[in-house]
Amino acid sequence: MHNETFNLSLRRFLKEVGVSSQQEIERIVRERGLKGPGSLKVKMVLTAENTDLRHEVAGEIDLV
């Protein structure tokens, strides 16, 4: 495995995940008219085909 190629590819994937996730969260908040006070509970699950990878991150996004 070539570390530089791997790192660039990984960063490109993570950037796409971040940007597209933010767009989808903003869309659902706008479409549903969600607003504070309160928060939106979110969860991301990362898997990789043909592996046992399952990484879950949960959190809350303040709507204020």
Question: What does it look like?
Answer:
By secondary structure, the chain is α+β, with helices and mostly antiparallel strands. The chain has one domain. Helix content is 47%, strand content 28%. It contains one helix and two strands. It has one helix spanning 3-32, and strands spanning 39-47, 54-62. The chain has a two-stranded antiparallel ribbon. A hairpin with a 6-residue loop joins strand 1 (39-47) and strand 2. The radius of gyration is 15 Å and the shape is elongated. The termini are far apart. The model has no long low-confidence stretch (mean pLDDT 95).
Structural shape:
elongated
Number of strands: 2
Largest sheet: 2 strands, antiparallel
Model regions low in confidence, pLDDT < 50 over at least 5 residues: none
Strand order of the largest sheet: 1-2
Task: Kindly report how far apart the N and C termini lie.
Answer: 45 Å
H/E element order? HEE
Number of domains: 1
Helix content: 40-55%
So how many helices? 1
Please state the average pLDDT score.
95
Brief synopsis:
Helix content is 47%, strand content 28%. The protein has 64 residues and is α+β, with helices and mostly antiparallel strands. InterPro entries: DUF6494.
